[in-house]
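Hey,
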Amino acid sequence: MIDIRKLLMIMVDETARHGETPLYEAIVRRLLARDIAGATVNRGIMGFGVHHQLHHRRLLGVSDDRPVTIMAVDGEDKLRHLLPELKDLLQGQGLILLLNAEVLS
């Protein structure tokens, strides 16, 4: 039997904030509070977005704007229901993608 789920991907800048909290942390805490099956945050090495500004590690490996990706997996209805809250948290500070995913194990 194939288990079809949705993969929610949210891309933000590492420096993005929600009040005093890093935005990626606020998003993961919201996902946890809404009983989403699972979430992971990955820090990117390099990337760029709609403004074509390159984000990468700088001198001595220090960067103030590295890309961060939050990935979460759950059913489509549950994730779609959460989208308005996530858009409100982001306030234009990132990109949200909702992709088909086949859970294999």
